[in-house]
Every structure is written in C-alpha cells, then in structure tokens.
Design a protein that fits this description.
alpha/beta; Aspartate Aminotransferase, domain 2; 2 domains; 10% strand; 6 strands; two-stranded antiparallel ribbon; globular; 7 helices
Length: 226
C-alpha cells in the first residue's frame, strides 16, 4: 500500500514507500506494485486497484498494515476496507500478509487490528508489543499449509536469517508473561475504559478548526495571500 513501511532489509524496503530513506538502495530493490491508500471517499479506487493487480499481475502476496499506516503519517482507514482487501486476495489465491508490528497488542483497541475486520491473515508479523515492549522479539505466524511447504529436516534449508533475536530465551519468557496478562479479562476491561475516556476527551477537538488539517491548510493559504 502507498505510504507503507515494513522495515529496513531489502525485501522490506521493496514493499514500503520509496523515498529519501531508501533512495541509495533503489537499484537493489525488488519491483512491486503499490495500491493507493484508501482515503475517506476514495476507498473504492483502492479496492479496484488491488483487484486489478491480483487479476492481471499474478502477485505472490499482498502485504498491508491493518487499519493504520504508522510511519506513513498515522493514516487511518476503516475495518470494512481491510475485510474487502482480504476477500479480493482470497478470490485470486493471493496470500494476505498482515504487518501488525505497530498495530498489534492492543494499540487499536483489540489485541490485533485484524480482529476488527474479522480477518485471519495467511501470514502475520508481530513484534515489539509481543513482550510488552520489555525486550526485542518478533514472530512470524502462518497457515499450516504455508509452514508445511517450507518445512524440512535438512539443516541447510533452515531460515538462518529469521525473526529478531530468534527465540532468545529471556525475550521468550517476557513474551510468555505478556501473553499471560492478555488472558486476564481485567486487561481488556482497562483497555475499554481507556478507549472510552479518550473518545470523550477528543470530542471537544472535533469542532475545533485548529485540529482540522484541511481547515488549517486553507487558513494558512489565506494568511499568506493576505
């Protein structure tokens, strides 16, 4: 997706936004197709672009940050769009990869953002919040058939360049403790309470033109033009 960010290795840079941060590596990046961000009122154009790419370009997979593009500007889009993107990928047998490194572990209200769209990704990337932010650890999950396609007892076929701090026992212990906290329903009640408080607090800003980006730009243009 346009404006996305998925990391700083060559493959991850290839599927992210191109710009000053990765321009030096441009000749080494893979060719990918990007679809436009589903801005409010232009969601259909995004879905049509994804459908066209899936139908005409035979892609291996579609990778997306669910509901929120973080480094791309904290851009939000609704759950129904995410659900439609998954449906389009399924119809064309294109793998759906959810990058929940930023959106996972309660940051959008549910444990994972995909839950809000009732979407189960084919491949999911989790990190950072996996340990509650205490230690670095990442995990990549996938459907059984994808795992089985890569499984081998031949050690030369091992993914030696794998997830961050691969199964470091101390980091895994921190992740286990964090997972235990998420099993506690009190944790979910606290999240709901915080969400309600934030929704109430932000209400006053909805009618303040200083927090309307479009209005702020128009006001600045008027100011500069005298």
């Amino acid at each position: 997706m346009q404006h996305s960010y998925h990391g700083d290795t060559f493959g991850a840079m290839s599927v992210g936004a191109r710009g000053v941060f990765n321009a030096a590596y441009g000749s080494l990046l893979f060719d990918v197709t990007s679809i436009p961000f589903p801005a409010s009122g232009r969601e259909r154009a995004t879905l049509d672009a994804l459908e066209s790419a899936c139908r005409n370009e035979n892609p291996a997979a579609f990778i997306v940050e669910p509901l929120v593009l973080g480094a791309g500007g904290m851009l939000m889009y609704p759950a129904w769009v995410l659900r439609e993107m998954k449906r389009i990928c399924e119809a064309s047998d294109v793998l759906f990869i959810a990058d929940e490194v930023m959106t996972g572990w309660g940051r959008t209200g549910t444990i994972f953002a995909c839950e809000q769209a009732n979407v189960v990704p084919d491949i999911a990337c989790y990190s950072k919040g996996l340990t509650g932010g205490a230690l670095p650890l990442a995990v990549t999950l996938c459907r059984a058939e994808i795992f089985d396609a890569h499984y081998s007892k031949d050690r030369t076929r091992t993914f030696l360049h794998s997830s961050s701090y691969t199964a470091n026992p101390v980091a895994c212990a921190a992740a286990k403790a964090n997972l235990d906290l998420w099993k506690d329903q009190e944790c979910h009640r606290r999240i709901a309470a915080v969400a309600t408080m934030q929704e109430q607090a932000i209400e006053a800003f909805r009618v303040d033109p200083r927090f309307d980006c479009g209005a702020a730009i128009r006001m600045e243009v008027q100011r500069q033009s005298g």
